[in-house]
Amino acid sequence: MWIPYDIRASLKAEGSRDAVRLSQADALNREFLVGFYLRNPVTQAWELDLIAQDAAPELSAGPALPGAFLGLHANDAGKLAEVIYRLPAGSAGEALQLAHGDLQARMLGWLARIGRGMAIAGWRVADMKHGARWRCTPFRPSAMKVDFDVLAAMDADLAPVAELFQRARNAPDAASRLIAGFAVLVAATRHPAMAGSGAGTLCITREMLIHSGAIALDEPLLDLPLTGLIGILRSEHQRLIGPDGVLIPVLDDLAGQKRLALLANLADLLAHRLILAEVQARQQKRAAPQALRPAAAVGG
Q1: How far apart are CA 28 and CA 253, in angstroms?
Q2: 3-state class (DSSP) for residue 63
Q3: Which residue among 8, 43, 225, 249 sits deepest, i.e. has the most Cβ atoms within 10 Å of its Cβ?
Q4: Which among 85, 95, 84 has a CA at the least distance from the CA of 28?
């Protein structure tokens, strides 16, 4: 079963609903805590290959974020696992956006000087005045039970398209997932191996939008044909890859990253649906001659 891998657009309230309502109604600046879980993109563990000391004092965020401080927190193995910001803001969303922007720039600095891979895995936000809390962490599904005996290898002509989908599923960042997912959608409209996928009649349904999280986007995507979605995704693709085929750096803020992640989710979901439809169409076609074959005569 396909599941979305990027949930940056969601911020789930925790604890008292009254506290959350009070926080949302309060527009005055007050103290927030924003904690960012960190992830090693190689091992996928929620830690970085950096040693941290929990007893270390907070660091000033500096002139880019006045009045803000950050603490570096280690896990049981002593590796940096979470960065917690303490800063003034008028809402949980503002606190998250300010802290995320600072950490993103800070991590680029760490990355350049240290050379180790690092990414943000999720976050939590707390309003210290009202006691309201929110969290955004990846969904970890239970393991699937499958019948490996009936899972056939991919047909050779369809394997290149499936490999593009594999890139979308395996990519740790939204930009790479969108690029790979977009390639599958384009292939569905022109590659001979995808002739049975039903790409010509596919339209975006509410279920697809809800499943991918793209229901939160402002674009009118409902009932859009595949060619219409490809047109929307093409502009994002061109923003990521220049006319000379070279990757373009895109320093999106958190709002821009959320939009890109949701579009990548939708492209990823539809890529899976189309490839699966092609595989199922081929299975039915292969089974049809056997169903029409006359039964052997009894006692003959």
Answers
A1: 23
A2: coil
A3: 8
A4: 95
